[in-house]
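Continuing from the previous page of notes. For each protein in this section, the sequence appears first, followed by its structure tokens. Read the first protein now.
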Amino acid sequence: MNILYLIDISGSTSDSFEGVPVGDLNGDGRSNTILDAEIASLIALTERIRGLGFSAADVTVTVIPFNGSADPADASAGGIVNAATFSLGAVGEEAIANHLRGLNAGGETNFADALRAANDRLQGLYQGIHPSGAAGFWVPRVVTSVHGDR
């Protein structure tokens, strides 16, 4: 099973989150931001998926952060951030959490580029090409974590 997380890291995600406090998960010096809440929810979802008992070899998680574009790679996005694919399992779960904790808010919100990036990644999966290079049929799942006016 392939799971794809689209996570909004636009500037508006640095606003305060008004739910259950989650702390400063990305170490940006601001606690309980929308981005912190997104990170907390995706870490919890990853733990939940792993807890369902799937073999680590059978599950991958791809994280695509986006702001003004998918895979933002400029300073306004808080540094170079690229899509990354991980195998599930204890090591993968920690790698996913660390990747999410490394995200910083900045930039505008552009859902179109994020959806295009997800579609491109999913097209490869539907063609039987796993991000690791393995052949076979892979059923993707998409989880979005967004904040914005539109």
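Done with the first. The second protein uses the same format. Note its length before scrolling.
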Amino acid sequence: MRRLAAQLLEAEDVAFLEALKGVGLLGELDADELLRIASEADAPDTDARWVELLEAYYQINDEARSAARQKADSYFIQRLGEPATAASLVDRLSAAQPKLGGISLERIGGAEGPLVLRAGEHFCAVLDENEERMDTDEIDLSTLTQTGEVPMVTVRGLVRSTNVLLERQGHRERLISLRGDETREVYVR
């Protein structure tokens, strides 16, 4: 079975999957499952093929098993062009990190205040797109609002804030970015 799957995959694909298994991910990846996901991944680009392998592994027809796999590895994916609000992304991150006891997106200090992620008594500011690009605090969000621009958050900013909350609650695990492709961002624990 593994030999057949290896014929469908490049050596680097097998090494990628073995590396993930080696750090405790892909717990249900046995020979049959390897063959199944290998037959579903056919992108010519390595990064895209790796994301296809992960999607095939985590998104199976059995909803309960799919959810269990995603929860076990804190799997989180966002596709370019997939409609998502900040609140829906936070809900998905919260489901991927149940140890935080729920994450909520709030504004502190009124309508002009910064967006924060809150988990229990802990909170962390979520940088907007412009602050993240500039990596400074020199942008006044009220100016952007006055000019008609809507402050936005990025998946990366939400993940970064989630990791801060994990640290503040004393959890050792963090969400890390795997090599995505041009249309998908992938995170696991």
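What the second structure shows: The chain has a mean pLDDT of 87. Residues 2-73 form one domain. We return to this in next week's lecture.
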